[in-house]
Records
---
Amino acid sequence: MEEVLYDNYYMEARREALLALSKDEVPVGCVVVKDGEIIGRGHNMTETAADPSAHAEVIAIREAAKALGTWRLTGATLYVTLEPCLMCASLIKKSRIGKVVIGAIEPEEGAFGSVASISLLPPRGRQIEVVWLKDEFSGDLMTSYFKKLRSRR
Amino acid sequence: MEEVLYDNYYMEARREALLALSKDEVPVGCVVVKDGEIIGRGHNMTETAADPSAHAEVIAIREAAKALGTWRLTGATLYVTLEPCLMCASLIKKSRIGKVVIGAIEPEEGAFGSVASISLLPPRGRQIEVVWLKDEFSGDLMTSYFKKLRSRR
């Protein structure tokens, strides 16, 4: 097995994912870091907040922008436990985030290679550095969440 | 010239676009209607709110979901003065909105045919009825906004 090192920021994103799970939400967590500081954090809240836009990344990015007083998050890094969907990927690109660290792949909706390519999303000129952690824990968290959901139906 | 009829809901979306313009924001406006009632409205607020997600559609959808107490806006219609971007189109599809009425085309970022096709966005099974108004006023509003912006630089 390949050895992977998770830094403290990613572990905080994982912590957010567990918070989502504890609320019966899709277990995805995210933090936004700038100059070594976590300036935004979030976990999926679509059900609890009755808000279809309340994905972990949207919440973390909104908080980060509020903290900086601007929507431009240039120089920031986003850590997220699951490959972001098109909505979130599009927002990440709009917000000028420079680097994205992703835990697990999301084959159905992921826009960092699975169903779309982040480099092709507007604005096209802007490139984002992407790091894949292949975090099995975050992937397993999703699998068990949806298994539990199906068993309830 | 082809005669087009704008209903009151679309005129409210236009009113929202003018509100955005009055705040020096990108002039896009949106309302969400269900059972004949406007349950959400919004205009672009990215600069004023320091929030990269604060597009007219996101604000209107969040408000509508709050009003209904659920993220599922099944049976709702969204009226917007400009072709939604990928972020907003993805949110529209997630939120189960059934119909979208669009004013003007957005050739650089529009996800209802310009740079992406709404029918291909996940969830793919779900189809959305789309009505194009070809509203020259809303298109002109955008053109003059960006012209003014460029002249300031």
Note: The two ends of chain A are 36 Å apart (CA to CA).
---
Amino acid sequence: MTESSKFFKPFPQSHRIYVPGKLFPDIRVSMREVEISDPLTPKLGIYDTSGPYGDPQKKIDVNQGIEKIRKPWIDARKKNGEPLTQMQYAKKGIITPEMEYVAIRENQKMDVLLGENGSSITPEFVRSEVAAGRAVIPCNPNHPECEPMIIGRNFLTKINSNIGNSAVASSIEEEVEKMVWSVHWGADTVMDLSTGKNIHETREWILRNSPVPIGTVPMYQALEKVNGIADHLTWEVFRDTLIEQAEQGVDYFTIHAGLLLSYVPLALKRTTGIVSRGGSIIARWCMVHNQENFLYTHFDEICDILAKYDVCVSLGDGLRPGSTADANDEAQFSELDTLGELTKVAWAKGVQVLIEGPGHVPMHKIRENMERQEQMCHNAPFYTLGPLTTDVAPGYDHITSAIGAAMIGWFGTAMLCYVTPKEHLGLPDRDDVREGVVTYKLAAHAADLAKGHPAAHFRDDALSRARFDFRWNDQFALSLDPDRAVDFHDETLPGNGAKES
Amino acid sequence: MTESSKFFKPFPQSHRIYVPGKLFPDIRVSMREVEISDPLTPKLGIYDTSGPYGDPQKKIDVNQGIEKIRKPWIDARKKNGEPLTQMQYAKKGIITPEMEYVAIRENQKMDVLLGENGSSITPEFVRSEVAAGRAVIPCNPNHPECEPMIIGRNFLTKINSNIGNSAVASSIEEEVEKMVWSVHWGADTVMDLSTGKNIHETREWILRNSPVPIGTVPMYQALEKVNGIADHLTWEVFRDTLIEQAEQGVDYFTIHAGLLLSYVPLALKRTTGIVSRGGSIIARWCMVHNQENFLYTHFDEICDILAKYDVCVSLGDGLRPGSTADANDEAQFSELDTLGELTKVAWAKGVQVLIEGPGHVPMHKIRENMERQEQMCHNAPFYTLGPLTTDVAPGYDHITSAIGAAMIGWFGTAMLCYVTPKEHLGLPDRDDVREGVVTYKLAAHAADLAKGHPAAHFRDDALSRARFDFRWNDQFALSLDPDRAVDFHDETLPGNGAKES
């Protein structure tokens, strides 16, 4: 049993609030409220992904797992018969508690800032976006600890952080701490990319303690089951892995079902071939067996499993460019076209869909990516890695990619997968995770400002006024990383006096 | 007498080359050539701003100053009568040695990569761009140590680094070291923003040891001369300061001549008023005296002085927005219109012109800035600070601004003034300068890739091939910051073996 403060220092001038639902009065949506010393600035309800870790009132016991806030809703649905996916409920015109939760969460108390009718994000709007496939709510019923969130172009731009990259055994508490550290800084989802011996157990601990959706690449575990030999992979091993992970509660799966046998030769002409790990595994399997990708040929059965557990499919881009030289080439766009075809298959079975995107793209080719994805994939939400806008700055790829991420977010990408300073060079440590998450939070926020999200500019304006008035503590409290802002300030002008003048 | 290695570790697998001129055979353009272990990759001639500090053969003695490479050209011009500005030569159809130097430098040995006729950047093209006012070559004849460089939208995107911010006395060698550290990482120009007691002497040491153009804000020194009291400023004090600095060899002056008395009230409606230091000084002077800005009323005389010394004028944006809330407002654009009017006055006298720009601008308002600047200022080169694309990330403003800088560079901005992580919080130290310069180098390079500079992609592609082949040392040597890339790599996988596999 530990305090949340074990994991990190709480944000200054902040406290946790819970906003109740109207359609579903037992909903309590967590937000961070910041107290500003200027009486003219309204209290801001800041979007908060830290779950119970951000509430000093909650005791955390990683051996018990965190509170299962969605359990009553899930149990009620089970009682009423076979539960449906969020998309199936949406298509039937039913607003779920998850949908109202998401609407309140996205609003960030905008009703206070803009008046009762100031926001267009209503539970009904959420439902209609999910029904249309333009947004997803990843929330496996077997992960009842997860606070509902939405990924779609008409909502706040989200970011993903990756953990568990190491094959070296680490303690369960260390893995949980990485996840908690990510959500403290604002990660909206976390992908567990663990390899090695303790995949299942590590994932179990992460799921039982995670307030955000957890994504995985099931192929990584399937490969472990055949001792790392891609040639030995079979549909049966993969299927069993999907079921195993869906039973545990994973909220979305990256599946490289669009990399067809006929596309592999297209990658041979490239500067950097195939750089996606999942893509390399599948390409090798296809070539060795001279057979079509079994994820493609079994996609119907995959969708049946995903629909049963309401796991979102994140259609992986195994042919994403690994260099700016390979951006927007035939290999990349051929696979994208197939992802569009698979999107329709998944939707027909009620499965929520994300589409994964590049990678490495120079600025002038970014818009084409977004437009082509929308067109070919029928407006399913786009989930991109960066993209990196130049290849010449290893050690700074959180920045080369934040440029591309902010731009593609503005153009409509719904979720940005973070890149840390260690990209291409090594494994991120705790500081790298913080640097990567905060960099992506600022890129996502810049995108929200540019795409005109009605709540986005209030925080900028409140911070700017604090800056102009030399209200240093307010400036720190409103910033994405108050600890760093305070540290940098104090290097030059330490002491409380300097913070008030 | 010291070695260049006193200042920094030399770049790996690199040596200095000097490319001779054709029109002017005594020209020797310095570049860094990188040796790649792959025989298929041509040797790249990397643009190098480090001057003699990047050549281990040269001995450096800061008491003597560095070699005066332009002295023979300047002396020859003096012998032939009154020397003209680069713009005046260009308008007469005369190609100067500076123009050929710049053409060779910009090419980065593209003739080797693309064949003899592969490059459009000829000395004649340089002349025509300078004649049209679309580019400037800042090179005061009293700064003969300066290696010629060009700032214009049809050339490589340049970056500026600021030094000397501290009022605290520091030793001369420390100030010179800050400048050398900036040019090592790739700063194309350096602004000396010194305040305090030893302004003149500090600047003298910087100029005598700087291989890049030096810019200043003469108002800062003029204000010191009236004991920091803006009300006491006069045209005469300012004029004498201009002459003093031009005699020393300053290559460009920021002058806030476009902030008119009638614009001051426009700034009062803003979220963050006037944040430019020069702008605040002038606004105060105008209000106290209820008189028009004396920099505007004396602009003709200012241009006569600048023309005599071939000092570029960088028309300052005293009303640049200090927050995204104030971007593209009436105050900002009114001043920009006046800068356009002043551009024509300066050009008529043969004075080269840069236009300074914001500041803080959300992404969706960046393009309007560039288009309006081009239109109102007759295609004079734009020189922007960032812009920052959100205000919520103090401590990360090198990144919030690199997003805007890369975009506006792509749209046509010729030079980007760097922002360090300490922006808004404190004074940058050595690490912050490196972080700021490298971040801006990558933003400028991303812009060059996007705007299709013919030489830009060779470096990305060579590095990407090295990455794909696991040629780690080649990857490091081609990166903007090899030291960091090596350090990050070695944290996870130290040892030489890991660099070759």
Note: The longest helix of chain A spans residues 430-450.
